[in-house]
Specification:
The chain has 209 residues and is mainly alpha-helical. The protein has 2 domains: 40 residues, Rubrerythrin, domain 2; 141 residues. The protein is built from 7 helices and 3 strands, in the order E-E-E-H-H-H-H-H-H-H. Strand 1 and strand 2 form a beta hairpin. The longest helix is centred in the middle third of the chain and has 31 residues. The two termini are 21 Å apart. The mean pLDDT is 88.
Length: 209
């Protein structure tokens, strides 16, 4: 049975022809290349001495990297983006929970705790967005598919809503006890949903299912 590899996300498809769209990242069939026996065993002769014929077709040495390119490579190699996203993805649910408790029970200390948690989220987002952009460009070749468009949109929405939530709590610390508290609660529920969708897409890309 023939095998095909998505050159965007690395998904492997088994069949006589590639799928019309990658089931993981949504790339079209033109992004699939067939895996040949040569591809499957790239290091079979790694320990063999080079013959003149082999030496003749040896590829040229890659161009020298700049320090910035080296740094970007480290970001992808050491999975900086998945690590960074654990901060907002872990803190946002706690912050939203505190906001709900404060709105339902009118306990101000929970609103204060929610504010401090949301500040942590806002401070972490520049690193999350930067490492996400690097991974998208380096690992996924800047592919524009519905999956990546959705992930980028969710990241933008999380950034805007997290900043808005933190600013709202800073300006009006008693917002969860005011007449507009349910608008504030709704804003944060949408924030939590957007973060959840972005995290789900990230997991789909990592685990290929």
């Amino acid at each position: 049975m023939r095998k095909w590899k998505c050159e965007v996300c690395g998904y492997i498809h088994t069949g006589d022809s590639p799928p019309d769209k990658c089931p993981v990242c949504g790339a079209d069939k033109s992004q699939f290349t067939e895996i040949t026996e040569t591809d499957a065993a790239p290091a079979a002769e790694a320990g063999q001495p080079k013959t003149p014929a082999t030496a003749a077709v040896e590829p040229e040495a890659p161009a020298r990297q700049t320090a910035f390119d080296f740094l970007l490579g480290l970001v992808v190699k050491h999975h900086a983006h998945p690590i960074a996203t654990h901060i907002p993805n872990g803190v946002i649910p706690v912050s939203v929970l505190f906001i709900l408790i404060s709105a339902l029970l009118n306990v101000e200390v929970f609103a204060r705790a929610a504010y401090l948690n949301m500040v942590v989220v806002v401070l972490s987002l520049p690193v999350v967005l930067f490492t996400g952009w690097v991974e998208w460009q380096k690992k996924y070749k800047g592919a524009i598919t519905p999956l990546f468009i959705t992930k980028i949109a969710c990241a933008g929405l999380v950034s805007v809503l997290a900043f808005t939530s933190a600013a709202w709590l800073m300006i009006d610390p008693q917002v969860t006890a005011s007449s507009g508290k349910w608008s504030f609660v709704l804003l944060n529920i949408v924030l939590l949903g957007a973060a959840g969708v972005a995290g789900h897409i990230g997991g789909k890309l990592v685990f290929k299912d």
